[in-house]
Amino acid sequence: MLQKAMSLVRLDFAPSHQQPSAGRVALATVVSLGGSLLADALLVVIAQAIFPGIKGYPHFQFSDYGKLTVIGVLVACAAWPVTTRITSAPRWLFVRMAVLVTLVLWLPDVYILVVQHQPAKAVAFLFTMHLAIAVITYNSLVHLAPVRPLRHPSHRRAQPVKR
Hints:
single chain, about 160 residues, mainly alpha, two-stranded antiparallel sheet, 5 helices, about 0% strand, elongated
């Protein structure tokens, strides 16, 4: 049963590729952080321009969304190299993990909407902020820190024969 579950999510612990380089993961992390924080800030500006009544909404303060964005992006960026190590289909698995994590991160937004009765227009932008972070982070990682083809001994340069 465990083997079937692992097969279903493509966990094979036998990747047919090399890990992304640490430098590329670092670059993707910086791009993910910058892009996500910029997207959040732009969405806040757009939300407040479209709906002036939500200006000053507490969750639209940089100190509120900024720290949560940084934590989330850093966790995702740490998960990418792990994902590339445990599966031979890292992009397939990572996109599904990104969707699942985004849905889970929407639960607090649902809570503040339904239980705390916070403004639906503002909460809709919180949902959008989570989605933007996921899209930016996923794309930064898989494109800027891609897995590399596995080098096989047959790919080595032919050594000159000494005579």
